[in-house]
Automatic annotation (TrEMBL):
Pfam families: HNH (PF01844). Signal peptide: none annotated. It comes from Drouetiella hepatica Uher 2000/2452. InterPro entries: HNH (IPR002711), HNH_nuc (IPR003615). Residues 4-55 form the HNH nuclease domain. One of its GO terms (molecular function) is endonuclease activity. Keywords: Endonuclease, Hydrolase, Nuclease. Transmembrane segments: none annotated. This is HNH endonuclease.
Length: 241
């Protein structure tokens, strides 16, 4: 059997009639798990792919999990756009779909390992800056490949044997609360973070850290064109796209 016409149309509609990998138009519905291996003709097993992506990755069993993750991410994004369209009637925004020239890197089998050691004299601001630059450099030089961060911390212990404020905030808030979506996995002293969704590759261009985020600094950031503000404990970080 094959997908019913109703299932194929629904899968295409959920994907805005775009490939869930490269976002190009004109798609066919691919079985993520092949029929020969018991793959069902159900929506959950359907992935809208263009002919190029189908030829490159459709037959590779090692890519099935990634294809499913990327499909789910793309379907969620399209659904959010449709909801926004209903609220704002901004049809032009919904129709703007850009393709990534380096999207192929997402499905490369081997990832990029990033390593940073925090030395005793290094504080939160320095560490956050080093890690962000590593992340940005990895995306610039090896676009979209899976990224694995390994973090070591020298000293930075409090009187109870735990991490001091800076290094706890770096791990608990900055990495787990902010940068985790941009990595596939993060290995740090507090534990391991594994990203269950498709790794994000829209890395912020730069990060500024403010000791005190008040209305004046917010207005100044808005004037500079800041796109979002992230607040963690005592340190305030602003991300610029």
């Amino acid at each position: 059997m094959a997908f019913s016409e109703k299932t194929k149309l629904l899968a295409k509609h959920k994907s805005a009639f775009r490939c869930c990998l490269c976002h190009k138009p004109f798609v066919e519905i691919h079985h993520i798990t092949p029929q020969a291996e018991g793959g069902a003709d159900k929506l959950d097993n359907a992935a809208p792919l263009c002919s190029s992506c189908h030829d490159l990755y459709g037959g590779n069993p090692e890519k099935r999990k990634t294809i499913r993750q990327m499909r789910d991410y793309w379907w969620d994004l399209i659904e959010k756009r449709r909801k926004n369209l209903t609220e704002t009637l901004d049809i032009e925004k919904f129709c703007e779909v850009s393709t990534d020239k380096n999207w192929e890197g997402v499905l490369r089998s081997q990832g990029i390992v990033l390593y940073h050691a925090v030395f005793e004299e290094e504080g939160f601001e320095d560490s956050a800056g080093h890690i962000h630059r590593l992340l940005k450099s990895a995306q610039d030089n090896t676009p979209n490949q899976k990224r694995f961060l390994f973090l070591d911390i020298d000293s930075h212990r409090n009187e109870n044997g735990g991490f001091d404020h800076d290094m706890y905030e770096l791990q608990r808030h900055f990495l787990l609360g902010f940068l985790a979506p941009y990595f596939t996995e993060i290995y740090m002293p507090l534990g391991v973070i594994k990203n269950e969704k498709a790794q994000r590759n829209d890395i912020p261009e730069r990060i500024e850290i403010f000791e005190d985020l008040n209305q004046e600094s917010i207005n100044e950031a808005i004037d500079k064109g800041v796109s979002s503000i992230w607040v963690a404990d005592k340190d305030k970080l602003m991300t610029f796209e």
